[in-house]
Design the sequence.
């Protein structure tokens, strides 16, 4: 019986190692760029509540803030931005947009979403919209993916045009600038 458990454990380790290699092989770094003045691409994803969401259509008619993350470790940066914007009095809606290009992550989307749900309170699931594969690609190309632990923070105007962008990590001064700029659009 011990030999069976050992064999299963060994196969599981190999499967995890192969999966990790495939995930790494399927992601390529895109040079960072500043997309201010451009329209956010029309892409569809799913909220953690299971609702289909098309961006930027779901936000039209109002300014909004998007927090885009390309890696799991980006959540630390996103959490700081969220806290800073809440403390500074942001009045516009905001969405967290985990953006995961590539085929392999698309195939594992259910597993990845379940992992996110386990770490995010249910009441916040509607503001987390995940983009996988072909839906993620135009967003990754829009902002670039270098320094992937940094969130891509952007403000969209009521028409879906990017009017403010930052991708160099959390900054108190930038939070205050973002909130002032966004609240002035209300």
Sequence:
């Amino acid at each position: 019986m011990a030999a069976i458990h050992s064999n299963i454990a060994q196969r599981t380790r190999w499967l995890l190692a192969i999966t990790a290699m495939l995930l790494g092989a399927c992601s390529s770094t895109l040079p960072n760029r500043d997309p201010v003045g451009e329209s956010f691409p029309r892409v569809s994803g799913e909220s953690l509540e299971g609702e289909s969401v098309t961006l930027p259509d779901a936000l039209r008619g109002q300014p909004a803030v998007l927090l885009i993350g390309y890696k799991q470790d980006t959540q630390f940066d996103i959490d700081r931005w969220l806290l800073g914007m809440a403390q500074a009095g942001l009045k516009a809606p905001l969405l967290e947009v985990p953006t995961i290009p590539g085929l392999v992550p698309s195939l594992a989307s259910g597993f990845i979403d379940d992992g996110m749900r386990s770490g995010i309170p249910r009441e916040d699931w509607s503001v987390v919209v995940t983009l996988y594969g072909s839906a993620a690609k135009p967003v990754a190309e829009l902002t670039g993916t270098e320094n992937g632990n940094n969130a891509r923070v952007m403000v969209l105007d009521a028409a879906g045009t990017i009017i403010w962008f930052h991708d160099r990590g959390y900054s108190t001064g930038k939070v205050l600038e973002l909130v002032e700029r966004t609240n002035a659009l209300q």
Q: What stands out?
A: The longest strand covers residues 94-100. The chain has one domain: 2-183.
